[in-house]
Write a structure and sequence with these properties.
The chain has strands spanning 2-7, 10-12, 18-26, 30-39, 46-52, 57-59, 67-72, 77-82, 91-100, 107-111, 115-119. The protein has 121 residues and is mainly β. The strands form two sheets. Strands 2, 4, 5, 6, 9, 10 and 11 form a seven-stranded mixed β-sheet that branches. A four-stranded antiparallel β-sheet has the order 1-3-8-7, with no helix packed on it.
Length: 121
């Protein structure tokens, strides 16, 4: 089993900040990539930011300069610092992990349950 614990979502005013965190636990051999995706009502789920085990990052253009993804490999935790939030950032944010559960197991992608972020005055 792979378990996700996500936290940090909530209601914030435009221009405000939130920090999401996601801890992954269970029978895990190695986590290659961790990331955050989001899905707004009526829209497709989109990539927000990802980070490799070596620390390389990638962001969707709409959040560059405002969001920062980071990772604690020792604790299998990924963070998303979100600054200068806009109403269009409102969505359910999902944590994602690309991992291997054993030395000879295949790589698989797992998802957290999601946390709501609402940006509104």
């Amino acid at each position: 089993q792979v378990q996700f614990v996500e936290s940090g979502g909530g209601l914030v005013q435009p221009g405000g900040s939130l920090r999401l965190s996601c801890s992954v636990s269970g029978s895990i051999s190695f986590i290659y990539v961790m990331g955050w995706y989001r899905q707004a009502p009526g829209k497709r789920r989109e990539l927000v930011a990802v980070i490799t085990s070596a620390g390389a990052t990638n962001y969707v253009d709409s959040v560059k300069g405002r969001f920062t993804i980071s990772r604690d490999n020792a604790n299998n935790t990924v963070y998303l610092q979100m600054n200068a939030l806009k109403p269009e950032d409102t969505a359910v944010y999902y944590c994602n992990a690309d991992l291997r559960r054993g030395t000879f197991a295949r790589r698989q992608t797992y998802w957290g349950q999601g946390t709501q972020v609402t940006v509104s005055s």
